[in-house]
Design goal:
Layout lengths: L1 H33 L2 H15 L3 H19 L9 H26 L10 H16 L4
This protein binds protoporphyrin IX containing FE.
């Protein structure tokens, strides 16, 4: 029962984070092409202001619940890592990197060293979701 609850929390938090990245990369970027620079800056400013209250917290929840799911699922290591363990480790690493990057940026004002925009997180989330779906069947 606890597992189901944690997994639901994981899913809802990644939904919020992924939805934010989707809107930012695919909707706002298209607005940039049609709105004037001033109007676009204003819209983006509102978007940043209102998403900041929720999205970074959702990312933290995604990482914490992910660590619990990782702990339960990883299993013991026999004759090296299994394919599942390798893919889960890559997924966990990428997810934790996103989490660390987001926390440092939003809560400590430290800008990411590479790829400062939101395109890299968006691509990583797509890869992570893909890994989450294939890792159990490889
Ligand atoms: C932004 C980062 C993350 C995203 C977008 C994400 C996304 C997802 C998705 C979509 C699932 C699939 C659930 C299903 O199909 O039932 C999942 C499951 C899982 N995630 Fe994450 N995740 C993230 C971070 C993490 C982290 C940091 C870890 C571990 C350190 C982690 C560990 C797991 C595990 C172990 C599962 C399998 C749970 C199960 O199916 O029972 N995730 N994740």
């Amino acid at each position: 029962m606890i597992y189901v609850f944690v997994k639901l929390l994981h899913l809802f938090s990644v939904l919020i984070y992924g939805g934010f990245l989707f809107t930012d990369n695919l909707i706002l970027m298209r607005m940039k092409k049609t709105l004037s620079v001033e109007k676009y800056d204003e819209v983006r400013g509102y978007f940043a202001k209102f998403t900041r209250a929720l999205v970074p917290k959702a990312l933290v929840v995604a990482v914490i619940t992910g660590l619990y799911l990782f702990y339960v699922n990883f299993g013991s290591i026999e004759n090296g890592f299994s394919n599942f363990q390798i893919l889960l480790s890559i997924k966990g690493f990428l997810g934790s990197w996103l989490g660390l990057r987001g926390v440092l940026q939003v809560f400590f004002g430290i800008q990411p060293f590479v790829f400062k925009g939101h395109l890299l997180p968006f691509v990583l989330v797509i890869i992570i979701v893909f890994l989450s779906q294939i890792m159990f069947s490889v």
